[in-house]
Amino acid sequence: HLTGTKVVCDRGACSACTVWLDGKPVNSCMTLAVDVEGREVTTVEGLARDGELHPVQEAFIEHDASMCGYCTPGMVMSCAGLLERNPNPSLDDVKLATSGNLCRCGTYPKVFDATLAAAKKMKK
């Protein structure tokens, strides 16, 4: 029973429901079940490996990058997706990768810091 992915707007406007479809971030609320048949779907729960949180998840905790939590799963998936594609992102890269993710609490600076910190940690 997975509960991490949140449906907030249900119209593709906030990206809180972001999951990976074949390794690429997509808004799950805009994706039909028939379109995922035979494809790999990764939710925020699927980022952890061998009981260890993904570096982005750890960095979100360390940098206090979530407040109410509605946007957090989608933000984590977008940021982790960026680091899969670009292990050395700039601040502008992180901003672009999260440009579709809405956060009503305004934690964007902490999200950016957490993502850049996770990128550094993943290089070690």
Explain what you see:
The chain is mostly helical and 124 residues long. It has one domain: [2Fe-2S]-binding domain (DNA polymerase, domain 1, Orthogonal Bundle). The chain contains five helices and three strands; from the N terminus they run ββαβαααα. A three-stranded antiparallel sheet has the order 2-1-3, covered by helices on one side. Helix 2 (55-62) crosses helix 5 (108-123) and helix 3 runs parallel beside helix 5 (108-123). The protein is globular, with a radius of gyration of 14 Å.
List the helices and strands and how they pair.
Blueprint: E1 18-21, E2 24-27, H1 33-36, E3 41-42, H2 55-62, H3 72-85, H4 91-97, H5 108-123
Antiparallel strand pairs: 1-2, 1-3
Helix pairs in contact: 2-5, 3-5
Low-confidence segments, given as residue ranges, are none
Gross morphology is globular
**Computed Rg:** 14 Å
Structural class: mainly alpha
The largest sheet has its strands arranged as 2-1-3
Q: Please bin the fraction of helical residues.
A: 25-40%
> How much β-strand is present in the residues?
5-15%
Q: Biggest β-sheet: count, sense, barrel?
A: 3 strands, antiparallel
Number of discrete helical segments: 5
Number of strands: 3
Termini gap: 33 Å
Number of domains as seen in the coordinates: 1
Q: Mean pLDDT score, rounded?
A: 96
CATH class descriptor: Mainly Alpha
CATH architectural category? Orthogonal Bundle
The CATH homologous superfamily corresponds to [2Fe-2S]-binding domain
CATH-defined topology: DNA polymerase, domain 1
Order of helices and strands: EEHEHHHH
